[in-house]
Amino acid sequence: MKLYVESIARFQGGSPYIYPLYGLGELPQGFMQAFARLSAVYGGTYMLNKPERKVEFNEEGKVIGVTSEGETAKCTKVVCDPSYLPNKVRKVGKVARAIAIMSHPIPNTNDSHSVQVILPQKQLGHRSDMA
């Protein structure tokens, strides 16, 4: 309850809850917005719309900061698109997303206007339900 009340004070609108406006197809953007809000609650720092970003590493290869416009924000973790760190990323799978507009409801969904379909890993021979 305390975290909820503190979250309300951080954001306009009177509620810390986020819901994607256009269904689950907007989930990656909604996830990042939710992550940004949660990070702010815990004192996280963002560097948005900054040119010449460079992720700094120590001798052991661990991240120690991000530099932009001559300023370095010190940190121990960086969340970014894999294209920023191609030498540090290992490709382990693929993700397929789709928005399907259908002429009929999906069976057993009680005629819901929006549903999420997860194909079970065992049925597809995958290591995860999401890949």
Automatic annotation (TrEMBL):
Protein's GO biological process: protein transport; small GTPase-mediated signal transduction; vesicle-mediated transport
UniProt xrefs under InterPro entries: FAD/NAD-bd_sf (IPR036188), GDP_dissociation_inhibitor (IPR018203), RabGDI (IPR000806)
GO cellular component terms, semicolon-separated: cytoplasm
Gene Ontology molecular functions: Rab GDP-dissociation inhibitor activity
Coiled coil segments of this chain: none
Family of this protein: Belongs to the Rab GDI family.
Name the UniProt record assigns to this protein: Guanosine nucleotide diphosphate dissociation inhibitor
